[in-house]
Specification:
With 195 residues, the chain is mainly alpha-helical. It has helices at residues 4-18, 22-29, 34-37, 59-66, 73-90, 92-97, 105-128, 152-162, 175-193, and strands at 47-49, 55-57. The chain has one domain.
């Protein structure tokens, strides 16, 4: 799935285009707080897994569960994140990883290189989109039950640290792939605004 910086980039582009608030931006990175909570991402990302262990995001389950809170920009940003991750899971970057079984040395090497490239993309996206580290005012409560809001400051601190990454030679990902991913994820989210 996309990195924190990729989600932040998508959120920033959409916030600038549609006038979304910082609450939307926080929602756009919030599902990844599961790492700070030290739990699997299945709950926070609404993942349903098949018999091989591969997952897809159940967007309809999220919509059904949070339809009453849809006007909350945090909920909209959260949904944007889920859409972007589903675009990632269904896209060519993830399909490359799916050619190998879980635990295989080839898959593990690819995934490791993939995550190493995320650090380079943090620098690439920061510079290309002229991003600055976020500053958020945190509320005591958020409507998403799958996350623990007290961990959101730690997630934001991790994102702020991502701004210190330096560009390195890419190993398995390409700039054009990531740019297509960002554009596609944004476009899919924008389609939901029309409904």
């Amino acid at each position: 799935m996309g990195s924190r910086m990729m989600h932040y980039t998508i959120g920033q582009v959409l916030a600038q285009r549609y006038g979304f608030s910082a609450r939307f931006l926080l929602g756009a990175i919030a599902p990844d707080v599961q790492k700070n909570m030290a739990v699997a991402k299945d709950a926070s990302h609404f993942i349903d897994r098949d018999e091989r262990g591969f997952g897809e995001i159940n967007l309809q389950r999220f919509i059904n569960q949070y339809q009453a809170q849809w006007n909350d920009e945090f909920v909209q940003g959260y949904y944007c994140h889920l859409i972007a991750d589903e675009v990632w899971l269904q896209g060519p970057i993830n399909q490359q990883a799916r050619q190998w079984s879980f635990g295989s040395p080839e898959r593990e090497q690819y995934i490791d290189q993939h995550y190493q490239d995320f650090h380079s993309f943090n620098a690439i996206l920061r510079d290309q989109y002229q991003l600055t580290p976020p500053t958020f005012a945190f509320a005591k409560d958020y409507p998403i039950q799958e996350i623990a809001p007290q961990f959101l400051p730690a997630l934001v601190a991790d994102l702020r640290d991502d701004f210190n990454d330096r560009r390195r030679p890419l190993q398995v990902l390409a700039e054009a792939q990531i740019e297509r991913y960002l554009q596609q994820a944004s476009a899919v989210y924008v389609q939901t605004l029309a409904h």
